[in-house]
Amino acid sequence: MRIRLYSVILAALVAITLMFAGIAIAGEGADESFRSMDVNGDQMLDPNEFAQGYEGTSDAQAEFDAADEDMSGTMDATEWAKYQKAHGMEGQGGSGMKSE
């Protein structure tokens, strides 16, 4: 019984560690375009920050809303990476957004 309890506790600790490691990696993986658009440095893009850098042909707010998967009103580095991938902007060294 004791070994089973220790196994459950160990599994929970490993899961929590991996979760926090994933968050840290996502923050480190934020590319330069994300960091340059994140004017207030909170590691999230709000609709205004996104719109300032957006140079697409469709409505910036509609694009932001579509990329904001969790509907939090902000876009994190993971959502940004998915947005870039969906729009063929990954690995190009640029953001596909306005440069300052």
UniProtKB/TrEMBL annotation:
PROSITE patterns: EF_HAND_1 (PS00018), EF_HAND_2 (PS50222). Residues 37-72 are annotated as: Disordered. Residues 1-26 form the signal peptide. Keywords: Signal. Transmembrane segments: none annotated. It comes from the Bacteria. Coiled coil: none annotated. Residues 25-60 form the EF-hand domain. This is EF-hand domain-containing protein. It comes from Oceanidesulfovibrio marinus.
